[in-house]
Amino acid sequence: MFASLALILRILLAWAAAIVVAGFVWSGIFSGMDDGPGWVFGLLAMFLVVTAIGSCITHIRRVWLVAGRLDGTTLSSRQRRQIELPMDAGPAFALVEKAIAELPRVEDIESAAGSLQVRAYVRRVDPYNGRPTSRWNLPARLAIRRNGVLATVTPGQGTSSVTLLFEPDAGVWADLLAVDEGSNYENAEAVTRAITRRVSEQRRDEQAAAEQTATEKELSVAKLNLLHAQVEPHFLYNTLANAQVLTRTDPPRADQMLGHLIQYLRSSLPSVDESMSTLGVELERTQAYLEILKIRMGARLALQVDVPPALLTLPLPSMALQTLVENAIKHGLEPKPGGGTVWIIARAFEDHVTLTVADDGLGFGQGSSGTGIGLKNLRERLRLTCGERAGVAIVSNFPSGVAATITLPRDAREAIHAA
Predict the structure, then answer these.
(1) Is the pTM of this model over 0.90?
(2) Distance from the first to the final alpha carbon of the chain
(3) CA distances (Å), 4 to each of 53, 54, 57, 106, 417, in order?
């Protein structure tokens, strides 16, 4: 109540001073005439005072409806807001610019990304709906038709401070003689709400993205475990079946096969729940696997390994190397009379690493046909663990056989940790 009375008193005093000055001017103009025109000045003065009081009452009432309270801040025709945003200056500037552009009746928007400032003007509600006012309607002709908006973004360390100014598009006299009917307070609250809404939406999107990433990671791990489970039993069943036959026909070789199987399981079981391994671990597992096959194939199977020691710590999906070796044996060397050789070769390049498993078996179209599930699983596991740049390429080997090459980016380690 005190703020409202202070506002009315201030406006009345300002208009009273203006009327006194106008009275001196009036007296100077009509000093040589009768006092007749004096009543005209009195009527004009009364009209202006009543209009000023009516404007104040309308202003107070509308501010009360908009803000729900009356104080010096809400009743002021000039509003200032300070908002802290948890983002860098660039995104903060774009957010503020969009919030101001959403104001009703906004026009003449000027934005300067270099100075991080946005200036705009907002038309006030026109009670005359665009119709020209009468030349005798002095308050309407002198009415302020627009409000100005100035937004300044101040960058900080990962945050930004936004200063918003809302004021009449008029000179200093507007603070003494006119009110804005709460329009600047309404604009200030509207822009503040728009900024808050956009920040909340951005935070919700970030939270949803984080939850989606976590869900995708869990699904990827579950999928990798399923793919891993599809690979392990294939070899174990065949080995146990062969060992069962050898226990009746050749017990020493059966004992040797079971020893290699124990070594194979020793390197496999500790990482049965791990989707990733290293080239060194996979090479040890694969060599144990090949030793088991040598018992079955004898001299028909030879192995040559060319892997630099520096690449033994290379991250590699579990069972990836053995999958390629299994394909080389099953589709290339086992059906070939006299068997052949398997080569395991690793090479490091500037931006990628290659791991090749080659054989001199029957080659494409000559060996046994498979379902392709093993290679399909391997491609999917490489994509999930090492990124889209990882893959498998299969080509003909010269003079016979097939060469399968896994390509891994040099930054695969970082991609795996991020996954």
Answers:
(1) no
(2) 62
(3) 11, 13, 9, 29, 64
Which 8-state DSSP code applies to residue 270?
G
The contacts of residue 179 (CB under 8 Å, 6+ apart) are 7, 11, 55, 56, 58, 59, 77
Q: How far apart are CA 119 and CA 100, in angstroms?
A: 9
314 CB-contact burial (10 Å; exposed 0-12 / middle 13-18 / buried 19+): buried
Residues recorded for the chain: 419
Q: pLDDT by residue (tens digit) across 94-122?
A: 999 999 998 888 888 998 888 899 999 99
Tokens of residue 111, six digits: 């934005």
Q: How far is CA 121 from the centre of its chain?
A: 32
d(CA 155, CA 386): 37
Instruction: Provide the 10 A C-beta neighbour count for residue 108.
Output: 12
Q: What angle do CA 43, 45, 48 make, to 5 degrees?
A: 110
φ/ψ (deg, to 5) at 166: -125, 120
Q: What does DSSP say about strands 340-348 and 301-306: parallel, antiparallel, or unpaired?
A: parallel
Q: How far apart are the C-alpha atoms of 170 and 119, rounded to whole Å? A: 15
**Two tokens at 375?**
């290679």
Report d(CA 152, CA 59) in Å as an integer: 28
